[in-house]
Amino acid sequence: MSNQSQTDNSIPVYTIDASISALFTSHTTTTQGECDKRATSLLSAPVTPVPIQGAFSYTVVGGSPPRLVQFRCSESDIDMNLLHLARSIHGGLVASTISHGHIGRCQPLSIYIIERLPGITYMESCLTNGVTAALSPQQSQRQKNTVIDFARFFAASWKAPQPMEARSVQDSFMSKLQLLAQKLPSRFFDSVEELSNNLSLLFSEGYPAVLTHGDLCEMNFLVDPETGHLTGVIDWAEAGILPFGCALWGLENILGFMDRRGWHYFDSYQELEDLFWRSFKDSVGETLDGTWRAIQVARRIGILFRYGFRWDEALRERIIVENDSGMKLRQCRTRVSQWGKDKNVKPQEMEAIVQERQKRRLVETDKGPLVFEVRGGPAEPQKIGWWMNQHDVAESFLYAPSPAASTPSTVGCHTISDS
Question: Known SUPFAM superfamilies for this protein (predicted)?
């Protein structure tokens, strides 16, 4: 998370001075000078603040080779056990970190020396390289590299399931969803209710609980500014063990961009999202047919929890309201409205559904009928039948679209007997 100043009561603008000032004014009695002095002593070298600061931390860099010294509020301390787990799963994408006690007696700050990973934050890369809805060939390739590496990052967690306090997490999720249903603007109610009704999918047998990064925003993952390849994932203070997919809201950040007019998806966002899921499936070696709906429920819950709540000045998490300034309400509205658009099955998706439906009915007769899902929602049999009638696809014939195309990552299915 980052501190931001407002220029027009709606568009947040980050400034390093405002961010640093907010931390030392509101969250600790320790001064910036005292932290700089301690960091200089620890590194035996002068230090300077890094260009992107967190809301609950102050970070400086110095020494040769460069290392970071980070001072963190107690509200956002690092769980070293979870950090070690992150390094065991993600390897060199997670920085080596050593705790060095505290500074200050009243509202003390925890001190960490952190390996400096290569690359710059994704946000800095976007500012350096520029982004528009229509990506140039060079921008497109850079974005694809980021998407593929992001998919592999999520795949690594999928392949390393962890024990979870399921009842506690499920109760917490339901409590948050109930609060959102009561307090969010009324246009969000149907979306929240749908997720509440499907929450149990995330806690069903066989669905993995994984180490989840709690703040996978544009400032907390690093990329090579030339190639777009992922070089690091930082700030694990909000990490926890949750059902897989709750951090997939972070994927949205690389499918579009924010400017002064609001959030925009890239023109090629569907191609990029398909690339993500193809790369993810290749990495995990599974089709995801039986878990696709649960994944999409987790992704949407993550989006609502990320953009439906905000931190107030007293570090309390509260629900956004209609008159909130800033981009929280705008982002929540934009992403949730995208779900509605996604309910319309696209031609390529329907072609893939009909092809698999007819194959199961006419060739794989020893198996049960299939139920299809598109972006986590059911593909209604009546709409499939209507499409077949409109395109003269007889029930007694196989269907092969021309030209042949791979099944979109947005389409999932499972046998009725397996549901």
Answer: Protein kinase-like (PK-like) (SSF56112)
**Model confidence band, residue 410 (pLDDT cutoffs 50, 70, 90):** confident
The Cβ of residue 376 has, within 10 Å, a number of other Cβ atoms equal to 23
Outline where 343-380 has alpha helix (H): 347-362
Nearest Cα residue to 118 out of 3, 262, 222? 222
Nearest residue to 262 via CA among 10, 92, 75:
10
Q: Which CATH architecture has domain 120-342?
A: Alpha-Beta Complex (3.90)
Do residues 181 and 192 make contact, with C-beta atoms less than 8 angstroms apart? yes
Kind of pairing between the strands at 230-233 and 221-223: antiparallel
Reply yes or no on whether the pLDDT at 270 is more than 60.
Answer: yes
Q: Are strands 411-415 and 97-103 parallel, antiparallel or unpaired?
A: unpaired
Q: Which residue has the tokens 């950090």?
A: 83
Confidence of residue 6 (pLDDT cuts 50, 70, 90): very low
406 vs 170, higher pLDDT:
170
- pLDDT at residue 34 greater than cutoff 50: yes
Structural tokens at position 379:
């593909």
Burial class (CB in 10 A: 0-12, 13-18, 19+), 404: exposed
CA 53 to the chain's CA centroid = 20
Residues 206/305, Cβ–Cβ less than 8 Å: no
Check residues 1 and 34 and name the one with the higher pLDDT: 34
281, 268 contact by CB (below 8 A): no
Please list the alpha-helical segments (H only) found in 242-321: 249-252, 269-284, 292-308
Give the C-alpha separation, 335 to 315, whole Å: 25
Its pTM stands at 0.80
